[in-house]
Write a structure and sequence with these properties.
Length: 737
């Protein structure tokens, strides 16, 4: 059987052209199962078909004309007459609808129920749906013949013919934009099903661009006649069609200015539509602000001395400059209007009641997602939206939950109550999530810093089940999120490694994905040698494209897992030296030094650069960075280690109170290894060490480093030794021996 979309279009073409009667479709419709009926009823091309089906059936026996004016008149008279065939399905001249379609107005759930209900119940349902059907038929029949011909266009070619036939009225132009959007969407969807690389053939793309250009030209003339709601619909159409055509930013600016001051008059469900349209247009039109070219009076003075051909070329350049200036001015005006509309949107959404039925789960999710894409954060608006969202969390789909979590994370809006509700709902809905949705939800939960073991456990299980479908970026997102929240799952990391090594291949990963994935496995302490090998090979090949953060993360990760990779480290060191460590922050520098030392990678030139970069900012380093940096230079035994440790001593002594027991142990070991004795540093350490006796008592390696460092440096302190004796009974013998 044909697909649902094909069936809907078939009904539309037959009925809108008055080529068939309701009874002719009974055999076809009766074959549909309840699930297929739901899909059919949800299809956008079906509404007009149903309206026309009733219209043609009412006039089929009397031979009534299909002219728009006569149809409208007949509809009005039938609705006011108590004996009309419209109110009496059994009257002469009326042809009954196929039973499964009689519940169209009641929605998909009612349609499925009607298909299996007893005959008497089906008849009662048909009668209760008649008022709704009357309204829907009237909306369609009151359209002009031109508007109905636009609705009936089965292809872009047919729509292009209608658009180019005559100048369209404002309402018809908006309707044509809707039809263009729908045909464009259907063509793209069909291409995706056929797994084509291009969404549409080139001819179809050119035809769609031609129709869009013609409609834009017409709308530039008549847009002032449109009400605010039609302007919102137009913006939505343009956003879904890829933005305004080049050079038409002036129309965008005019439409946005036309909406200013009227956002508060829009219905609640139109607010997220406007926000989503602005978010989509922001990427294609609003951000592409063009600066006008600089004018030069000297060029005008010199124009008289040019040859005629040169003067003509200069005039053309001036005209192009004027056009560019006008476009830049329109872009600036559009951006300013968009910012003003955002403020109006945020004010309007705060007026919505939590009990409003027109602003439910879908609207809340779309609004938050749009605000996140726009990067516009209004604390008061988001606080009210969180109240609205809390009432609809249980009704949200997986996609809506994902949009809410990602939106809150991008906007950095931490509402503990709402986020907890979203996390609980996400845990329950996780079995129905796709791999991409699992990755996005995990990423958002990590950014929101939510401690929710249940949702991460459910996400791990679902990610393992869908690991074979994960895209490279989703693999890195999931690995990063679980590492940040310390949600350990051996099965998950095994599945992620298998996806990269056995299926995707490291070449499919972007450079920063390699860095992020290696860091995630190191953070979790998972040493998958096959993954580390392929990640290292890929990262070495693209080392010159890695950012400083990526370079330091890779070096730290391989050092943390004690996995030497000479080719990778050579390439990363070359990239760091080529940049002269420009762009490396304090943490990047210490991670780079520590990772090289941990894998015993020797590069005197790199360590010299590291020493030079850190000597001037020792007092800016954190205790953790100071401990790692001094340990790295001591362990690597590179030239200049003594000078660096001597320079680091005053900074370390000044912040000794913030050193942990392990950091202190590494610090003392480093100074003892290099042979640098600093009295102020040792005195500060002796004062803090007794306060760290609890953590040192459970760390034998740290105890050994402290004792060896104190003995090697020849430092004795009675109070310190008394404190150490509580956790190390033979401390005196160890220090003296």
């Amino acid at each position: 059987m044909a697909s649902i979309s094909h069936l809907a279009r078939l009904l539309g073409r037959l009925q809108l052209a008055n080529k068939a009667h309701a009874g002719d479709l009974q055999p076809l419709v009766s074959l549909l199962q309840p699930q297929s009926l739901q899909q059919l009823l949800q299809h956008g091309s079906f509404a007009a078909a149903c309206c026309s089906m009733q219209q043609s059936s009412r006039y089929s026996s009397t031979g009534a004309s299909a002219d728009a004016s006569e149809t409208t008149a007949a509809s009005d008279s039938s609705s006011s007459s108590s004996g009309s065939s419209e109110q009496n399905p059994a009257s002469p001249g009326h042809q009954a609808w196929p039973e499964p379609l009689s519940s169209f107005a009641a929605g998909p759930a009612a349609a499925a129920a009607a298909a299996t209900a007893p005959p008497q119940q089906q008849q009662q349902q048909q009668q209760s749906n008649l008022p709704k059907l009357q309204r829907r038929r009237r909306v369609f029949t009151e359209r002009s013949e031109l508007e109905r011909s636009i609705l009936a266009c089965p292809s872009l070619k047919a729509l292009a013919g209608v658009v180019s036939l005559q100048p369209l009225p404002a309402a018809a132009a908006v309707l044509a934009m809707h039809r263009l959007r729908r045909l464009h969407h259907d063509a793209a969807q069909q291409a995706r099903k056929q797994q084509q690389q291009q969404q549409q053939p080139e001819e179809q793309q050119q035809l769609a661009a031609q129709v869009l250009q013609q409609l834009t030209e017409r709308l530039s003339e008549v847009h002032g006649q449109l009400p605010p709601v039609s302007v919102v619909q137009l913006l939505r159409c343009y956003s879904q069609l890829g933005g305004f055509p080049q050079g038409r930013t002036a129309l965008l600016a005019s439409l946005l200015q036309q909406l200013q001051g009227h956002v508060g008059t829009l219905q609640n469900d139109h607010l997220p539509v406007l926000a989503s349209a602005l978010a989509a247009l922001n990427a294609s039109n609003l951000d592409s602000l063009q600066q006008p070219p600089p004018s030069s009076s000297s060029s005008e003075a010199a124009a008289a001395t040019l040859h005629p051909e040169q003067q003509q070329q200069q005039q053309q350049q001036q005209q192009q400059g004027s056009a560019t200036s006008a476009s830049a001015a329109a872009s600036t005006a559009a951006a300013e209007s968009a910012r003003a509309l955002l403020l109006e949107l945020c004010e309007a959404v705060q007026c919505i009641s939590p009990t409003a039925q027109s602003f439910g789960a879908s609207q809340v999710a779309h609004f938050v997602s749009a605000m996140a894409r726009l990067g516009h954060y209004d604390w008061q608006a988001m606080r009210h939206v969180c109240v609205l969202a809390a009432a609809h969390v249980q009704a949200m789909t997986v996609a809506q939950l994902t949009s809410m979590l990602v939106g809150c994370a991008k906007l950095r809006h931490y509402d503990q109550q709402l986020c907890s509700l979203l996390a609980a709902a996400a845990a329950d809905a996780m079995p129905g999530a796709t791999g991409a949705q699992v990755a996005q939800m995990a990423w958002a939960l990590a950014h929101l810093k939510l401690d929710s073991p249940e949702v991460f456990a459910a996400a791990a299980q679902q990610a393992v089940a869908h690991a074979h479908k994960l895209e490279p970026r989703h693999v890195s997102m999931i690995g990063w999120a679980f590492a940040v929240r310390k949600a350990y799952s051996p099965a998950l990391y095994e599945a992620l490694a298998g996806r990269v090594v056995g299926q995707l291949g490291a070449a499919a990963l972007e450079p920063h994905h390699c860095s992020l994935l290696a860091w995630s496995f190191a953070k979790q302490g998972v040493r998958n040698e096959a993954l580390l090998q392929v990640l290292g090979e890929q990262a070495a090949a693209v080392a010159d494209r890695l950012a400083p953060q990526n370079i330091s993360n890779l070096v730290w990760a391989y050092g943390r897992l004690s996995y030497p990779h000479p080719a990778l480290f050579t390439a990363l060191a070359a990239a760091a030296k080529a940049a002269a460590l420009d762009g490396f922050n304090d943490q990047n520098l210490t991670d780079l030094a520590w990772g090289c030392a941990a894998t015993d990678f020797k590069d005197p030139e790199l360590f010299e650069l590291l020493a030079r970069a850190t000597l001037s900012r020792m007092h800016e380093l954190s205790p953790h960075s100071l401990s790692d940096l001094t340990w790295a230079f001591a362990a690597a035994r590179q030239p200049g280690a003594e000078a660096l440790l001597a320079a680091a001593a005053p900074a370390a002594a000044a912040c000794m109170e913030r050193f942990s027991g392990g950091m202190l142990a590494d610090l003392l070991w480093s100074y003892a290894s290099v042979g640098v004795r600093d009295e102020a540093l040792l005195a500060a350490a002796a004062k803090v060490l007794p306060q760290r006796s609890l953590s040192l008592g459970s760390d034998v390696e740290a105890q050994a480093k402290v004792l060896w460092g104190l003995r090697s440096l020849g430092y004795r302190d009675a109070e310190l030794e008394a404190a150490l004796a509580e956790i190390i009974p033979n401390v005196q013998e160890l220090l003296e021996g």
